[in-house]
Each structure stands twice: as C-alpha cells, then as structure tokens.
C-alpha cells in the first residue's frame, strides 16, 4: 500500500496525539452522561457491563480505527474510499465514512446545547446564586434554564463559536494547542473534586453504588445503553478517532496509544462517579434523576459546603473544557470532508459545518421547552437524537470498522501498521474478527425486543 501524507498536517508527536484523542474521549460523556445513566440503570451491574464493553469492544475497535485513519490519511469518507479501492472491496464500504460524518454532526448539535448548560452553570455557581440553596430552589433554577429557549440558544451559539474557532485554526495551532492546555487542568480539577467527596463521610456509599453489581437491575436496554456509552465515551464509531489517527506520525505505536486513551477515559469517568455519587448520597438526593443529575444535585452540595462557590465554579469550568476538546473532534471529519471534496478552505468549511450544526441544535434547544410534548417513539427530539446516535449509529459504525479491519483489510497491512505478527497482534486480530462484532451483534439482538 502506497504511503500517503495527510493534507491537513500532523501531530507534533505521539504524545500530542494521545493528548488530543484523550481530549476527544474525555468529555460530557464522562462527567455528565456516565453518572446519570449509571444512576438511571442501577449502578454496579451497569458499570461492570460498561467496563466489559470498553475492554472487549472499545479498545480493539479504538486500535482498528486509529489504524484505518493512519493508513488512509484523509477524511473518514476518503480514507474509506482509498482503503476500499486498495483492498478491492465492495464500494459500499465507503458509506461507513459517511455514517461517521453524519453521526458527528448529529451528536455535536445536541452536545453543544448541553455544554451550554455547563457554561451557564459556571456563571451561576460563581455568582453565588446557590449559596445556602435547598433542593426546591435548585430544581426550580434548572427548570428555569430549560424553560428559556433564548438563554439556551445564546449559550449554544457561544459554544459553537468557541468550537469552530479552534477547528478553524487547524491541527497544530488549533486542536493541539487547545488540548495541551485543557487536559492537564482537567485532571487536577477532578482530583480536587474526588478529594472533597472523600470528606463527605459517605464516600463508601458512592463506591458501593458504583462497584457492587446488582444484576436484577440490569435490563436489555441497560446493556444496550452501556455498550452505546462505551462507544460514545471513547469517541468511537464515527471517524473522530479515525481522523485524529490520520494525523499520527508513522513511527508511533498505535496499540500503546489506544490503551492510554481508553485507560485515561475510564479513569476520568470513574473519578467523576466517585466525585458525584457521594455528594448525591450525602444530601439524600436521587441518583436516577436523569440528564439533569449533576445540574440539580451538585449545586445543592456546592451551595452548602465550605468554599462551595469556588469548588462549584471549578467543576463546571472543567466540564466546559472537557466538552470543548471533544466538540472539536466531532466536527473535524465533516470539515476535512468539505476541504477535500468540495474545494473549500478550512475557514469556509468551518463556517458551513458550524452553521448547519448550530441550526440543528435549535431542535434540541426547543425539545426542552416549546417542543417538550412532541415525541417520536415516546422520545423528545433530544432523547431521540441521543438514542439514535449513541445507541445505534456509533455501535453500527464500530461493528463495521471491526469487520473491515479484521476481514477486509489485508493481514499484511494491519500487521505492518501494528508492529508485526506478535502475540498482542494476534489477540487483537482475533478480537476484531470474532469477539467485538459478535458482542455488538448480540447486544443489538437483545435490545430489539426492548426498543
Ligand atoms: N467522547 C465524548 C464524550 O465522552 O463526551 C463524546 C464524543 C466525542 C463522541 C467525539 C463521539 C465523538 F466522535
């Protein structure tokens, strides 16, 4: 296979890639979504299935996706186009690239609205609005935010602008510079939060909730949600990791990078759980409160603890940073596609992709107020988008990535990219051929009856 150069630049080193991919993986998924879906799905057993999905499906597919990206060195659409041609495979495989570009665009449209909540809460907490607040006041404040489409729209607009600004600056000056600053800060802030949770006196309640499995609380949908979340949290199945992989220098070890990224991502999710649940229990709050979990429960804690304004503001700042470095990777596949196939400059591509995403996001904004009663299959616009992307499109994308890497791509190519025919390689090859596709397939089958 001929060696290609990326048209959009390269990371300055292997570490820059790991940092950027970790920045993509660690986001609202870890700090907002993981705790609330864990709460909704009963805790320990759900966490166990999620961890199994990370190990058996997530990591092997992460390695496969980075590898395909580095082999193709183009937008996910063109990467698949090249790889399909070189493997003389069915041209329909190209749709895999499209599936990713569309999924990223759909996810960012609602991701940006939720990131907007986090921005609003940074200012709310910092202003001392929750000092001494009780559950009713905090709930009313959250409901008030959701009921104001103008406010939600304003924050969504600001977040989209921030995102497109970074993406417009390109691989090194934009993406790499941003994550270099954001990622280390995020770890420090999260560690501070876990430290606070340890001081609540009910830290162990949180630990038990997260790690003691009660399988009677696990439904078919829970398993699908756990698997969908494994893809979502690792940014897999939609070309984000593929496009980041396409900027990876040729001499970097893909498998090692995959383990680092998945490890860091899982660590952050578990740390977020350990920070949040003790606070939830210490205040007699409800773990299954849904998407508002951290916005309804945490401000109560922050409003009633010493230096709560400072800790609270730091926490939401952290959430905004984490969301920002993920958002840039959600739109990068669409932007590179516009640059490569429609002759646009990076700036033009950013304006177009950003505008389209912003427009679609208005649907999510309205689904919390004016359109709250309009339901498709019993779901609001936001719920439906979240379900469709995280639980269907990403696992489907991941399934096809595994099949492509395991069955269609020549063994010679994958062997060369992954450093030769050693035990680790064989284990990976077996997993992407059999274990990962079968696992995704079985979970899909199990959930058909519950959808
Ligand atoms: N992994 C991100 C999170 O956990 O918040 C979300 C995400 C980013 C999903 C990029 C998919 C993606 F391609």
In short:
With 451 residues, the protein is mainly α. The chain has helices spanning 14-25, 28-40, 44-72, 76-87, 95-126, 135-146, 149-168, 171-198, 203-211, 220-233, 240-245, 254-282, 293-304, 308-341, 346-367, 381-408, 411-417, 423-448.
Task: Name a few traits of the molecule.
451 residues; Amino acid/polyamine transporter I; binds 4-fluoro-L-phenylalanine; mainly alpha; 18 helices; globular
Description:
- With 451 residues, this protein is mainly α.
- It has a single domain, classed as Amino acid/polyamine transporter I (Up-down Bundle).
- Helix content is 76%, strand content 0%.
- It contains 18 helices and no strands.
- It has helices at residues 14-25, 28-40, 44-72, 76-87, 95-126, 135-146, 149-168, 171-198, 203-211, 220-233, 240-245, 254-282, 293-304, 308-341, 346-367, 381-408, 411-417, 423-448.
- Helix 5 (95-126) runs parallel beside helix 13 and helix 5 crosses helix 16.
- The longest helix is centred in the C-terminal third of the chain and has 34 residues, at 308-341.
- It is globular.
- The relative contact order is 0.20.
Indicate the CATH topology: Amino acid/polyamine transporter I
> Tell me, what is the CATH class?
Mainly Alpha
Low-pLDDT ranges: none
- CA-CA gap between termini: 43 Å
- The secondary-structure class comes to mainly alpha
Average pLDDT works out at 90
Strand content: under 5%
Q: Which ligands appear in the coordinates?
A: 4-fluoro-L-phenylalanine
Give the second-level CATH assignment, the architecture.
Answer: Up-down Bundle
Main β-sheet description = none
**Total helical elements:** 18
Helix fraction bin: over 70%
Number of domains: 1
Got a strand count?
0
**Radius of gyration computed on alpha carbons:** 21 Å
Can you tell me the overall shape? Answer: globular
What is the chain-wise order of helices and strands? HHHHHHHHHHHHHHHHHH
């Amino acid at each position: 296979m001929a060696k290609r150069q990326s048209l959009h630049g390269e990371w300055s080193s292997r570490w820059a890639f790991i940092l950027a991919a970790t920045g993509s993986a660690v986001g609202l998924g870890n700090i907002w979504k993981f705790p609330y879906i864990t709460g909704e799905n009963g805790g320990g057993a759900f966490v166990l299935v999620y961890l199994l999905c990370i190990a058996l499906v997530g990591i092997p597919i992460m390695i496969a996706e980075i590898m395909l990206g580095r082999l193709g060195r183009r937008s996910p659409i063109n990467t698949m186009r090249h790889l399909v041609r070189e493997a003389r495979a069915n041209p329909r495989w190209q749709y895999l690239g499209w599936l990713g570009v569309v999924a990223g665009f759909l996810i960012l449209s609602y991701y940006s609205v939720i990131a907007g909540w986090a921005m609003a809460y940074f200012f709310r907490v910092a202003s001392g609005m929750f000092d001494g607040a009780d559950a009713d006041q905090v709930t009313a404040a959250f409901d008030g935010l959701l009921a104001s489409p103008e406010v939600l729209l304003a924050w969504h607009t600001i977040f989209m602008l921030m995102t497109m600004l970074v993406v417009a600056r390109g691989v090194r000056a934009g993406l790499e510079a941003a994550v270099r600053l954001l990622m280390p800060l995020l770890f420090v802030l999260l560690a501070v939060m876990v430290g606070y949770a340890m001081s609540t006196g009910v830290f162990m309640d949180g630990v038990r909730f997260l790690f003691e499995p009660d399988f009677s609380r696990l439904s078919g949908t829970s398993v699908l949600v756990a698997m969908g979340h494994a893809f979502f949290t690792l940014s897999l199945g939609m070309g984000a990791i593929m496009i980041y992989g396409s900027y990876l220098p040729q001499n970097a070890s893909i498998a090692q990078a995959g383990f680092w990224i998945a490890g860091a991502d899982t660590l952050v999710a578990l740390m977020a759980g350990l920070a949040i649940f003790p606070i939830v229990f210490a205040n007699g709050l409800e773990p299954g409160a849904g998407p508002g979990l951290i916005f309804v429960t945490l401000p109560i804690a922050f409003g009633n603890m010493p230096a709560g304004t400072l800790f609270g503001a730091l926490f939401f700042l952290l959430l905004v940073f984490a969301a920002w470095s993920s958002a840039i990777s959600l739109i990068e596949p669409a932007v590179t596609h516009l640059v490569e196939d429609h002759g646009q400059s990076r700036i033009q591509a950013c304006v177009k992709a950003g505008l389209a995403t912003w427009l679609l996001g208005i649907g999510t904004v309205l689904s919390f107020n004016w359109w709250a009663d309009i339901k498709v299959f019993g779901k609001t616009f936001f719920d439906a988008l979240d379900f469709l992307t995280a639980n269907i499109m990403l696992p489907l994308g991941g399934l096809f990535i595994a099949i492509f890497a395991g069955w269609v791509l020549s063994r010679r190519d994958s062997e060369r990219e992954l450093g030769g025919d050693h035990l680790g390689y064989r284990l990976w090859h077996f997993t992407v051929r059999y274990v990962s596709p079968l696992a995704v397939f079985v979970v899909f089958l199990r959930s058909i009856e519950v959808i």
